[in-house]
Amino acid sequence: MIVAGCDVGSLTAKVVLLGDGRILSSSIVRAKSKPEDSAREVMDIALKEAGIKINDINYCVGTGYGRKKVSFVDCSISEIACHGKGSLWLLPTVRTVIDIGGQDCKVVKIDQAGNIVKFVTNDKCAAGTGRFLEVMANILEVKLEELGRLSSLGKKTVKLASTCTVWAQAEVVSKLNDGESIADIGAAVNQAMASRVGILANSVGLERDVCMSGGVAKNRGVFQELEKLLGVRIKRPRIDPQLIGALGAAVYAIEKGKGGR
Asked: What pLDDT is attached to residue 211?
Protein backbone atom coordinates (compact mmCIF):
# COMPACT_ATOMS: atom_id res chain seq x y z
CA MET A 1 0.00 0.00 0.00
CA ILE A 2 1.24 3.47 -0.93
CA VAL A 3 0.08 6.38 1.23
CA ALA A 4 0.76 10.11 1.34
CA GLY A 5 0.88 12.89 3.89
CA CYS A 6 0.44 16.45 2.64
CA ASP A 7 1.29 19.29 5.04
CA VAL A 8 0.29 22.75 3.78
CA GLY A 9 1.71 25.28 6.22
CA SER A 10 1.85 29.06 6.27
CA LEU A 11 5.30 29.32 4.67
CA THR A 12 5.97 25.92 3.07
CA ALA A 13 4.12 22.87 1.76
CA LYS A 14 5.48 19.36 2.29
CA VAL A 15 4.66 15.85 1.07
CA VAL A 16 5.92 12.45 2.23
CA LEU A 17 5.07 9.22 0.37
CA LEU A 18 5.28 5.93 2.28
CA GLY A 19 5.28 2.43 0.85
CA ASP A 20 5.96 -0.88 2.58
CA GLY A 21 6.98 0.92 5.76
CA ARG A 22 9.61 3.15 4.18
CA ILE A 23 9.81 6.66 2.75
CA LEU A 24 9.52 6.50 -1.04
CA SER A 25 9.99 10.22 -1.64
CA SER A 26 9.45 13.65 -0.13
CA SER A 27 9.27 17.25 -1.23
CA ILE A 28 9.23 20.79 0.20
CA VAL A 29 8.16 23.94 -1.67
CA ARG A 30 7.49 27.54 -0.73
CA ALA A 31 3.78 28.03 -0.08
CA LYS A 32 1.70 29.85 -2.66
CA SER A 33 -1.24 32.12 -1.91
CA LYS A 34 -3.72 29.28 -2.52
CA PRO A 35 -3.24 26.08 -0.45
CA GLU A 36 -4.56 23.89 -3.29
CA ASP A 37 -1.87 25.20 -5.65
CA SER A 38 0.85 24.60 -3.04
CA ALA A 39 -0.41 21.08 -2.41
CA ARG A 40 -0.55 20.12 -6.07
CA GLU A 41 2.93 21.47 -6.78
CA VAL A 42 4.58 19.69 -3.87
CA MET A 43 2.67 16.46 -4.57
CA ASP A 44 3.67 16.48 -8.24
CA ILE A 45 7.34 16.76 -7.29
CA ALA A 46 7.11 13.88 -4.80
CA LEU A 47 5.21 11.68 -7.28
CA LYS A 48 7.79 12.30 -9.98
CA GLU A 49 10.63 11.43 -7.61
CA ALA A 50 8.91 8.17 -6.61
CA GLY A 51 8.04 7.33 -10.22
CA ILE A 52 4.33 6.90 -9.54
CA LYS A 53 1.04 8.63 -10.33
CA ILE A 54 -1.48 10.08 -7.92
CA ASN A 55 -3.92 7.25 -8.68
CA ASP A 56 -1.34 4.85 -7.23
CA ILE A 57 -1.85 6.40 -3.78
CA ASN A 58 -4.26 4.34 -1.68
CA TYR A 59 -4.89 6.99 0.98
CA CYS A 60 -3.82 10.59 1.56
CA VAL A 61 -4.09 12.61 4.77
CA GLY A 62 -3.83 16.39 4.80
CA THR A 63 -2.52 18.51 7.65
CA GLY A 64 -1.37 22.07 8.32
CA TYR A 65 -3.21 25.39 8.05
CA GLY A 66 -4.36 24.74 4.49
CA ARG A 67 -5.42 21.11 4.99
CA LYS A 68 -9.14 21.74 4.44
CA LYS A 69 -8.52 23.51 1.15
CA VAL A 70 -6.85 20.54 -0.58
CA SER A 71 -9.22 18.57 -2.80
CA PHE A 72 -7.24 15.34 -3.24
CA VAL A 73 -6.84 14.36 0.43
CA ASP A 74 -9.13 11.68 1.88
CA CYS A 75 -9.25 13.27 5.33
CA SER A 76 -7.49 15.96 7.34
CA ILE A 77 -5.85 15.79 10.78
CA SER A 78 -4.39 18.60 12.90
CA GLU A 79 -0.70 19.35 12.57
CA ILE A 80 -0.31 18.92 16.33
CA ALA A 81 -1.34 15.27 16.10
CA CYS A 82 0.71 14.70 12.95
CA HIS A 83 3.94 16.07 14.41
CA GLY A 84 3.49 13.79 17.40
CA LYS A 85 2.85 10.74 15.23
CA GLY A 86 5.69 11.50 12.81
CA SER A 87 8.17 12.08 15.62
CA LEU A 88 7.28 8.78 17.26
CA TRP A 89 7.63 6.91 13.94
CA LEU A 90 11.19 8.20 13.64
CA LEU A 91 12.14 8.12 17.34
CA PRO A 92 10.06 5.59 19.34
CA THR A 93 11.33 6.87 22.72
CA VAL A 94 10.17 10.47 22.17
CA ARG A 95 7.53 11.78 24.57
CA THR A 96 7.83 15.56 24.02
CA VAL A 97 7.84 17.29 20.63
CA ILE A 98 8.79 20.95 20.17
CA ASP A 99 7.44 22.07 16.80
CA ILE A 100 8.46 25.54 15.66
CA GLY A 101 6.74 26.50 12.44
CA GLY A 102 6.56 29.64 10.37
CA GLN A 103 3.78 31.33 12.33
CA ASP A 104 3.40 29.39 15.56
CA CYS A 105 5.19 27.22 18.10
CA LYS A 106 3.76 24.12 19.77
CA VAL A 107 5.01 21.88 22.55
CA VAL A 108 3.29 18.50 22.59
CA LYS A 109 3.45 15.64 25.09
CA ILE A 110 2.61 12.25 23.58
CA ASP A 111 2.17 8.71 24.87
CA GLN A 112 3.82 5.53 23.59
CA ALA A 113 1.28 5.30 20.75
CA GLY A 114 1.89 8.88 19.61
CA ASN A 115 -1.43 10.17 20.95
CA ILE A 116 -1.57 13.68 22.39
CA VAL A 117 -1.49 13.83 26.19
CA LYS A 118 -1.12 17.59 26.56
CA PHE A 119 -0.05 20.51 24.40
CA VAL A 120 0.46 24.26 24.49
CA THR A 121 0.76 26.59 21.54
CA ASN A 122 1.80 30.16 20.84
CA ASP A 123 -0.11 31.40 17.80
CA LYS A 124 -0.92 34.95 18.91
CA CYS A 125 2.52 36.49 18.44
CA ALA A 126 5.34 36.07 15.91
CA ALA A 127 7.94 35.84 18.68
CA GLY A 128 9.07 32.25 19.09
CA THR A 129 8.25 31.38 15.47
CA GLY A 130 10.10 31.04 12.20
CA ARG A 131 8.71 34.41 11.14
CA PHE A 132 10.66 36.07 13.98
CA LEU A 133 13.94 34.63 12.64
CA GLU A 134 13.04 35.54 9.07
CA VAL A 135 12.45 39.19 10.02
CA MET A 136 15.72 39.37 11.99
CA ALA A 137 17.72 37.75 9.18
CA ASN A 138 16.40 40.38 6.77
CA ILE A 139 17.45 43.21 9.08
CA LEU A 140 20.93 41.68 9.53
CA GLU A 141 21.11 41.07 5.76
CA VAL A 142 22.04 37.40 6.16
CA LYS A 143 20.34 34.36 4.69
CA LEU A 144 17.90 32.66 7.02
CA GLU A 145 19.85 29.39 6.84
CA GLU A 146 23.03 31.24 7.89
CA LEU A 147 21.52 32.77 11.03
CA GLY A 148 22.07 29.68 13.15
CA ARG A 149 25.84 29.55 12.72
CA LEU A 150 26.23 33.12 14.00
CA SER A 151 25.85 31.77 17.54
CA SER A 152 29.24 30.09 17.21
CA LEU A 153 30.88 33.20 15.71
CA GLY A 154 29.84 35.75 18.34
CA LYS A 155 32.66 37.21 20.45
CA LYS A 156 30.69 38.88 23.22
CA THR A 157 27.29 38.59 24.86
CA VAL A 158 24.59 40.88 23.51
CA LYS A 159 21.08 40.73 24.94
CA LEU A 160 17.76 41.63 23.38
CA ALA A 161 15.47 43.08 26.03
CA SER A 162 12.25 42.46 24.10
CA THR A 163 10.83 39.20 22.76
CA CYS A 164 8.17 41.09 20.79
CA THR A 165 9.03 40.96 17.09
CA VAL A 166 8.10 44.60 16.47
CA TRP A 167 10.17 45.98 19.36
CA ALA A 168 13.02 43.54 18.75
CA GLN A 169 13.36 44.87 15.18
CA ALA A 170 13.95 48.38 16.51
CA GLU A 171 16.38 47.01 19.10
CA VAL A 172 18.41 45.13 16.49
CA VAL A 173 18.62 48.24 14.28
CA SER A 174 19.78 50.26 17.30
CA LYS A 175 22.51 47.73 18.11
CA LEU A 176 23.71 47.76 14.50
CA ASN A 177 23.94 51.55 14.68
CA ASP A 178 25.90 51.23 17.93
CA GLY A 179 28.52 49.16 16.11
CA GLU A 180 27.69 45.73 17.51
CA SER A 181 28.80 42.95 15.17
CA ILE A 182 26.32 41.00 13.06
CA ALA A 183 27.58 37.75 14.64
CA ASP A 184 26.97 39.01 18.20
CA ILE A 185 23.50 40.29 17.32
CA GLY A 186 22.69 37.09 15.45
CA ALA A 187 23.65 35.07 18.51
CA ALA A 188 21.40 37.30 20.62
CA VAL A 189 18.50 36.70 18.21
CA ASN A 190 18.94 32.91 18.52
CA GLN A 191 19.12 33.19 22.32
CA ALA A 192 15.95 35.31 22.43
CA MET A 193 14.16 32.78 20.25
CA ALA A 194 15.25 29.86 22.45
CA SER A 195 14.21 31.75 25.59
CA ARG A 196 10.70 32.29 24.27
CA VAL A 197 10.31 28.64 23.26
CA GLY A 198 11.82 27.49 26.56
CA ILE A 199 9.11 29.31 28.52
CA LEU A 200 6.46 27.56 26.45
CA ALA A 201 8.13 24.16 26.88
CA ASN A 202 8.41 24.52 30.65
CA SER A 203 4.75 25.51 30.90
CA VAL A 204 3.64 22.15 29.48
CA GLY A 205 6.22 20.13 31.43
CA LEU A 206 8.90 18.15 29.61
CA GLU A 207 8.96 14.40 29.45
CA ARG A 208 11.98 12.68 27.90
CA ASP A 209 12.92 12.00 25.27
CA VAL A 210 12.56 15.38 23.54
CA CYS A 211 12.82 16.15 19.83
CA MET A 212 12.35 19.21 17.63
CA SER A 213 10.38 19.43 14.41
CA GLY A 214 9.70 22.26 11.98
CA GLY A 215 12.08 24.45 10.02
CA VAL A 216 13.60 26.19 13.05
CA ALA A 217 15.03 22.84 14.17
CA LYS A 218 17.63 23.37 11.41
CA ASN A 219 18.90 26.50 13.17
CA ARG A 220 21.73 25.05 15.26
CA GLY A 221 22.05 28.22 17.34
CA VAL A 222 18.45 28.00 18.58
CA PHE A 223 18.77 24.20 18.94
CA GLN A 224 21.86 24.41 21.16
CA GLU A 225 20.55 27.33 23.23
CA LEU A 226 17.32 25.47 23.84
CA GLU A 227 19.24 22.43 25.05
CA LYS A 228 21.07 24.63 27.57
CA LEU A 229 17.90 26.32 28.79
CA LEU A 230 15.93 23.09 29.19
CA GLY A 231 18.84 21.03 30.50
CA VAL A 232 18.14 18.13 28.10
CA ARG A 233 19.68 16.60 25.01
CA ILE A 234 17.26 17.16 22.16
CA LYS A 235 17.12 14.29 19.71
CA ARG A 236 17.60 14.97 16.00
CA PRO A 237 15.32 13.20 13.50
CA ARG A 238 17.02 11.37 10.64
CA ILE A 239 15.03 13.33 8.04
CA ASP A 240 14.54 17.04 7.36
CA PRO A 241 12.59 18.23 10.45
CA GLN A 242 10.26 20.24 8.22
CA LEU A 243 8.89 16.94 6.89
CA ILE A 244 7.79 15.49 10.22
CA GLY A 245 4.22 16.80 10.02
CA ALA A 246 3.78 15.36 6.52
CA LEU A 247 5.36 12.10 7.69
CA GLY A 248 2.92 11.90 10.59
CA ALA A 249 0.03 12.48 8.19
CA ALA A 250 1.32 9.60 6.05
CA VAL A 251 1.52 7.34 9.12
CA TYR A 252 -2.10 8.21 9.89
CA ALA A 253 -2.91 7.38 6.25
CA ILE A 254 -1.58 3.85 6.82
CA GLU A 255 -3.88 3.44 9.83
CA LYS A 256 -6.93 4.87 8.07
CA GLY A 257 -6.41 3.37 4.64
CA LYS A 258 -5.95 -0.31 5.39
CA GLY A 259 -8.92 -1.15 3.23
CA GLY A 260 -8.22 1.36 0.47
CA ARG A 261 -10.30 4.47 -0.16
From this structure: 97
